[in-house]
């Protein structure tokens, strides 16, 4: 197994601090330093930016990010039991690791990272991973505060993020991510690599912001995708009725077929629909 620093092996850290994994916090720890280093390397050049990590746990990925040269890591951890282990890492890398105890869903990432250039890298807790990704890709400001996202998800979620129109996995997440970001799945990670092993395979996704996403009202795009994919088997003229009495007309004006189903519509189509909806709301 790779040696990346002089800190104790993660297994010993977990035992010393009694960090038995809690399911309620989505705790599946990655102890293989070859893998954590691979994820850290995939995040790009870390030497000139602050890396935001959600859920450092006992600090496996945190150590890999710091060993890969991260100028600074800001790590948000909800489980206070992990703080002593993380503070040992802070001492090993003076001034380069800030640990914030709290819920990443409730903290403002821009304030925490002090306006620096940010890359986000994390083995996300499965129960809040999708919501965190949505928060990061639906920030009102674009380009966003981050320059890349390197994130581990359950593989099924990763496939939904990068899904293409026409595929079964294509849904709200694929539209929003595809509209604002480019990227893909870098590699899979077997359940065996984790302690305790999860039931399913994981995958690492790398996304960077699209420089110029098609102009679109974000709120309307969220509404349209929620309505269309909320009833994905229905034709658009039925699934979008909840948004407008004139749904059928708006669909035609957006250049789409009212009889089409959500998964057949590409991202440009959803953007046109969203823009039509917001136009009627504002008129
Ligand atoms: N980064 C570690 C690794 O790769 O081994 C741990 C990853 S584990 C899948 C997810 C981590 O997120 C856990 O340490 C858990 O306590 C933490 N966590 C869960 N919910 C959180 C939240 N809302 N905010 C911040 N951290 C959270």
Model description:
It comes from Roseibium album. Its EC number is 2.1.1.182. It is found in: Cytoplasm. The protein is an alpha/beta fold. It contains twelve helices and nine strands. Helix 9 crosses helix 12. The chain is elongated, with a radius of gyration of 21 Å. The mean pLDDT is 96. Bound molecules: S-adenosylmethionine. Residues 25-30, 54-57, 60-61, 76-79, 82, 103-105, 123, 125, 128 line the site of S-adenosylmethionine.
How would you sum up this structure in a few lines?
37% of the residues lie in helices and 18% in strands. It is α/β, with parallel strands linked by helices.
Strand order of the largest sheet: 4-3-2-5-6-9-7
The computed structural class is: alpha/beta
Question: CATH H level of the largest domain: which superfamily?
Answer: Vaccinia Virus protein VP39
Uncertain segments: none
- Compute the CA-based radius of gyration: 21 Å
CATH architecture label of the largest domain? 3-Layer(aba) Sandwich
In DSSP terms (H or I, runs of 4 or more residues), the helix count works out at 12
Estimate what percentage of residues fall within beta strands.
15-25%
Distance between the termini: 63 Å
Protein name: Ribosomal RNA small subunit methyltransferase A
EC number: 2.1.1.182
Domain Ribosomal RNA adenine methylase transferase N-terminal: 35-211
Main location: cytoplasm
């Amino acid at each position: 197994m790779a040696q990346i620093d002089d800190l104790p092996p993660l297994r010993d850290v977990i035992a010393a601090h009694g960090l038995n994994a809690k399911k309620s916090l989505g705790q599946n720890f990655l102890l293989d330093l070859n893998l954590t280093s691979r994820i850290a390397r995939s995040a790009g050049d870390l030497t000139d930016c602050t890396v935001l990590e959600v859920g450092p746990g006992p600090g496996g990925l945190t150590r890999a990010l710091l060993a890969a040269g991260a100028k600074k890591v800001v790590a948000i951890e909800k489980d206070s039991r992990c703080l002593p282990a993380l503070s040992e890492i802070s001492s090993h890398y003076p001034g380069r690791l800030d640990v914030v105890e709290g819920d990443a869903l409730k903290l403002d990432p821009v304030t925490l990272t002090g306006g620096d250039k940010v890359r986000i890298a994390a083995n996300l807790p499965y129960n809040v991973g999708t919501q965190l990704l949505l928060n990061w890709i639906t920030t009102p400001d674009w380009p966003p505060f981050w320059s890349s996202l390197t994130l581990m998800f359950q593989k099924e979620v990763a496939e939904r993020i990068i899904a293409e129109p026409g595929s079964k996995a294509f849904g709200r997440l694929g539209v929003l991510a595809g509209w604002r970001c480019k990227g893909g799945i870098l590699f899979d990670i077997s359940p065996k690599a984790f302690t305790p092993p999860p039931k399913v395979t994981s995958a690492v996704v790398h996304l960077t912001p699209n420089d110029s996403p098609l102009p679109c009202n974000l709120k309307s795009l969220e509404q349209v995708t929620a309505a269309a994919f909320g009833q994905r088997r229905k034709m658009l003229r039925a699934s979008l009725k909840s948004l407008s009495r004139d749904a059928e007309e708006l669909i035609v004006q957006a250049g789409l077929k009212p009889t089409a189903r959500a998964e057949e519509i590409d991202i440009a189509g959803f953007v046109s629909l969203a823009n039509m909806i917001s136009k009627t709301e504002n008129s």
